Amino acid sequence: LRTEGTKEKDIFNFGKLWLFILFAIWVTTSLSGIASGVTSALAALTLASFVASAVFIAVSFDRDERRENTAAVFKRLRDKYGENLDIARGMFVVTCAPIILIYCCFSITNQLIRKTRIFPCSHPVRDSNDMFTARTRRQIDQMKTWDRARVYTFAVYWGIFFMVMQVLVAKLTVVFLSWLIEQTASFGLGAVTALLVVVGVTMFLLPPVPGVPVYLTLGIVLPAQGHKTLGWVGSIAYSIAIGLLLKLFSSALQQKMIGENLSRYVRVRQFVGVNSILMKAMRLVLSQNGLSVPKVAILIGGPDWPTSVLCGILRLSLPQIILGTIPVVFLILPTCVTGALLYMASLKDESGNPEFSWAGTVSTITASLTALVQFGSMIVAAYYLEQAADKRMDDVAAIEDDAEVKKADDEAAHLNKCYREVTQWQKIPMFPKLLMRLSLTCIVISCYIVQLFSSRCFTEHTLTDSIDDNLRGNVGNLFLPLGWIATGLFGASMVLLYAFIRWGKAKAKVEAIEAAPKSDILAYGSSDRTDFDLDTHVVATADGIRADD
User: What is the pTM of this model?
Assistant: First the structure.
């Protein structure tokens, strides 16, 4: 697996592997409700891949090699990604916080053993007053140099993203669609199609909802209603066609109705970073006419709502985007087939035996194909975006900046600086620090509970289950006691983070006013503008602080 390049390049290849593995989180969410075995296996594969890749890279290099390349790797990361490293650090904190605590406990135990000199082979203690070993102390000191308020904020954001995707989207979407399937069981094919189109478009217009559960519902309901008139093959083909038309129509609505309308607002364009290298690289790839692998991979592999809305914000050609979206049929096809097979597996003959005993096994295979298509397209999209940003730098740089966004960025730069200054960890008072620490603690505990004890948090519910039978007619029964605890910690974390950010913004406003040049204040006083106008201007500017701050 080692490449012919430098050892530093090998380390970066593993880093890219970790980023690719993250896409499995989205795929796992999309597949919720299909088959618990596939979803659980993919989630386990994600965690195992993280651990395995870390172990593999650790044993691939000796100690001297790791020391030689660590400084070069981090320098390259800082040069290329700059402050965006805090996003990765936030992910590290929220995913590894318990592991860090365990590591520190081992370090304390190790230091105590060294102090007692029980084992003659123990390393000598460098600082007898320190509770940690020298290595752990260096690592802790390095982490203290981080902008901890910013890193912890991103850590909470990552946790919120995980909980939204794994609970609100993965669980509640499946429950709603299972209810819809149950309610339309007695409807005709035409009525069911019309109802599913309306519901499908509505769900596509919701930002966090992935498309796979919608396609799966089409694959279950339409063949169930149409197999007597169209046959199984014809009804499955019909569901695939409806799914494709639904996706194309929803993409057009997302792009024209939402994206292009939002593009009129400078703050929206500023928020998505239209002047960033990533957005320019995406514009470069998606603005190509016709079909290309990078373009299709982005439009299929990217999250449905964000991708289509971004196309509208970037003012890309709708016909060309629709053309590039048509290959999504290769994702819709195995998903609809999976849905039909799940329904077929539930049918019984007169003797009570399964009418299609093979359907359950084949549905697992087609569900795996769905995961392969979506996961593969995400990997290809990420690869080509990086290639466009790295290999076509001249073309990316040739794309002009949005003048209004650049002006807004320049105007907000001072206030952003003030926010960063007042939220330096050493300067934050005890109470705001407590808010941030409690927020981080709540979200970490919540995420670990949901990930490690999912079966004790939620009642297992798939698209073919009945709410009356499986949840005793109450959607609230989806949440078991431990699930309610995890959800409560999730809500508490968001409230605490909001309180911390409000405190930081208020302090930043005061700092901005105090740091305003006296000449500007005098100018305000000598003109028609008043102190109130100055304060209003600063407050309005403060509201433009980017979400990542």
Answer: 0.70
Report residue 409 as tokens. Answer: 């960025």
Alpha helices in 31-62 (DSSP H): 36-60
Q: Both tokens of residue 239?
A: 């569901």
27 close to 371: Cβ distance less than 8 angstroms: yes
- Residue 26 has which token pair? 């989205």
* Distances 405 to 276, 278, 402 between C-alpha atoms, Å: 11, 16, 5
Comparing C-alpha atoms, which of 504, 506, 498 is closest to residue 442? 498
| Mean pLDDT comparison of 123-132, 230-239, 342-351, 540-549, highest-scoring range | 230-239
pLDDT above 90 for 17 = no
pLDDT of residue 440: 95
Task: Say how far apart CA 48 and CA 44 lie, in whole Å.
Answer: 6
List Cβ neighbours of 473 (8 Å cut-off, separation of 6 or more).
Answer: 467
Is it the case that residue 538 has pLDDT exceeding 80?
no
Helices (H), 61-171: 63-81, 85-116, 134-144, 148-163
**Angle at the Cα of 302 from the Cα atoms of 156 and 328, rounded to 5 degrees:** 150
Q: Please give the pLDDT value at position 216.
A: 86
